[in-house]
Amino acid sequence: MYDENIITKNINWKAVEKPVYVDGKFIDGYKAVIREDTGTTIAINGSRYQVVDHRENIFSAYNIISKLSNDIIVKNFIIGTKILTRFFLNDNEIFNLNNKNEKANVAVNIYNSYDGTTPFGIDFSIWRKICSNGMFGWSRESRVKHLHTQSIDPEKMVKEIGEAIVIAKDKYQVLYNQLFSLPIIAGEEFEKEGFTDKLIKKARELYPVERNLSGGVNNAWVQLQAFTRAITHNEKMNEFGKIDTTTQIVKFFQAQLVKA
């Protein structure tokens, strides 16, 4: 049995629908989505939009994911009208072949929104245990989507998530092994792709830290982890921005493998 207050920490509030008025005049065809606890307007949507309590989605997801893991840590983030819930599967470990001391865990990311821009969806990231903030990400090829108007089929969802976790872990392991054999990439290549000077500089500063963690080797894997560490330690970037930027940098390294 789970503790609802822990799972919904920071997001334990209800969204309700209200009619829309402008200068006292009712506006047909629209509805407002309001936070019941504060009265704050979250979004204005068309009348066909259906509010689905984000907590119900999260509880359903937790019940499903708990069939795949016995040790789950939950973190919630609010970014504008979007809500991100991240389930860390602490007992779903990956051991890297070239560095047995480096372990990583799968995290399942649950997305909700109240402006209709983000359907209830799931994707996956890998978090290294040597750095509590270190993240490995990739493009959302393994994403599972469900529209607000659809009910969740628990058995189907367990199967989809279980299969996607296997794919995610395989991708992580393959890329790890490939980048471990690739020399570091010249700084100008990152500049050509439009990565900011600030990010490039920060990754360069963190590279010695990552090199020490990887046994003193110099390669593209160490370089990638310097970038992901720089991204996830950026306090000015929200969680959606971190996932998107990490995905971009991983795609860049994947492209370098093709060139090599």
Can you describe this structure?
- Strands 4, 5, 6, 7, 8 and 9 form a six-stranded antiparallel β-sheet that branches. A three-stranded antiparallel β-sheet has the order 1-2-3, with no helix packed on it.
- α6 runs antiparallel to α7.
- The chain has a domain at 176-259.
- The protein has seven helices and nine strands; from the N terminus they run αβββαββββββααααα.
- It has helices at residues 4-7, 54-65, 154-180, 187-192, 197-213, 220-232, 239-259, and strands at residues 15-22, 25-35, 41-46, 72-79, 82-95, 103-113, 120-128, 135-136, 144-146.
- The protein is of the alpha+beta class and 260 residues long.
- The mean pLDDT is 84.
Reconstruct the topology from this structure.
Blueprint: H1 4-7, E1 15-22, E2 25-35, E3 41-46, H2 54-65, E4 72-79, E5 82-95, E6 103-113, E7 120-128, E8 135-136, E9 144-146, H3 154-180, H4 187-192, H5 197-213, H6 220-232, H7 239-259
* Unreliable residue stretches: none
Query: N-to-C SSE series?
Result: HEEEHEEEEEEHHHHH
Calculate Rg over CA atoms. Answer: 21 Å
User: What about the largest sheet?
Assistant: 6 strands, antiparallel
Helical segment count: 7
Instruction: Note the gap between the termini.
Output: 50 Å
Shape: globular
Tell me roughly what share of residues is in helical segments: 25-40%
The SS-based structural class is alpha+beta
The whole-number mean of residue pLDDT values reads 84
